[in-house]
Amino acid sequence: MNLYFDSHILSKESGFLIVPLTQEQAGAHKEKPFHLEGSSIQVELHDFSGEAGAATLVYPLEGPCTRVFAVGLGAEKDVDAERVRRAFDAGVKKARELKQSTISCALPDLNSKAISMEDSLKAAGEGVYLGNYLFTKYKRAGKDRYVGVGQAYFGFLDANRKLSVHALETVLHETGIVCENVCRARDWVNENADVANSLFFEKQARGLAQKNKLRCTVFNEKQLKRMGFHMILAVAKAAQVPPRLIILEYKGNPKSSKRMAFVGKGITFDSGGLNLKVASPATPPGFGIEAMKSDMAGAASCVCALNALAELKAKVNAVAVIPVCENIIDAKSYKPGDVIDSFARKTVEIGNTDAEGRLVLGDALAYTVAHLKPSLIVDLATLTGSCVNTFGPWVSGLASNDSFYARQVFESGQRTFERVWELPLYQEYADDIKSDYADLKNMGNSKMAGMLTASAFLGAFVGDTSWVHVDIAGPAFLQTPQAYIPKGGTGVGVRLLVDFAVHAAWK
Ligand code: BES
Ligand code: MN
Ligand code: ZN
Q1: Containing domain of residue 272, as a range?
Q2: Among 67, 93, 259, 358, which one carries the catalytic annotation?
């Protein structure tokens, strides 16, 4: 989709105009018609309350707009970026229903200090772009030509505003870049597991590297063996398609010695291995084996976030490290009860082959610490069912050894509405993954606190490096859409990491 800024939104014809209004603004127009500034158009909004979630379609009798869709923002004092995203999502959904390919979007006219003009433009762009997404690649029957909204123009109804047009154009341009990368991550997650496999990731990474001047290093199976990535190799043993470790580097601030690393779980399909995932009454629908093509969502979001930073030309140094393979069943499968080695030379008892994410991540984290020496690591992983039980599909879990950076990831979560919540990494969780035979065990002995025993396992591979773990198991793949976040792959983590990277304060 293309997003354009047009300071006077009513200066041209439009088949569909989204007008967001607060409750107060809607109330003021209950009795008298709503006059679209700068034109002769008057619309009657009698029953439109302006409450969040309310919407009314009207057809002005004259003027440049065929249709005006009023969307509610609620009380002025409560308007925040998420309200704006959701209002514009409602707008774009209606435009889709009416098969509009070009739409106009009036920006909210707010006096409130709670949200700046730039932030409300960004949120409006996100609502429209992300709300317009659909994964239709495999739709054949009934496929019509309409492919959604292709162009969206943003501007103000009031033509007399003093604006820094250039700054607003920049906001919209950057919003488009980030949203395109969110949708790229969604596409990868929604793709069949046999298509979006480790070789697909390699090809995508190399393609993006070429396009955006990133450095790309890929370790193949032979190299992984030679270098001792035993945990990745164990998980990948049964798969037909060999594992890869992909490293993408972006240098946006050559003068700085600081660099952040994004490490993403890339299990292209998680069958559970020999501890096969079986349907259980406790598994909520959509979180069983049938959803496990989404177990590479962390990897997809790390690659797409890094690519977004490059396209934004952000002044930051970042590297994405992506272990990718499949956890499947074969005569060659790694087995429960095995003791295996790891890149970090710690031995690990396999308590359960379905706890594979921490294994591939443990090797990737140890490599990142030893060879890339980042100032900070953020990992994204669909790591535990336990995290889904705690937070549902609405919030990601966070665990960290560094409160300074954990706080900043939390704040990015608040700004982007990709919310994260921290749980404590107390010593007891590390004690719970001790093994009688090996240095570590890949599951807790107590079988309790699954998100935190998994976090403690990852923590054993980062040493003293600052590290923030984000368990996106709930929000990565939805059964029920949430406004501008569709069913299926969500691309969660892309906006979070980009926001974090561009705001990052270093220690
Ligand atoms: N990929 C799953 C976690 C998951 C569950 C993601 C539901 C998305 C939705 C992970 O590999 C897994 O199977 N974790 C197990 C670990 C257990 C066997 C120790 C879990 O959390 O149940
Ligand atoms: Mn698993
Ligand atoms: Zn998994």
Answers
A1: 191-329+351-427+451-503
A2: 358
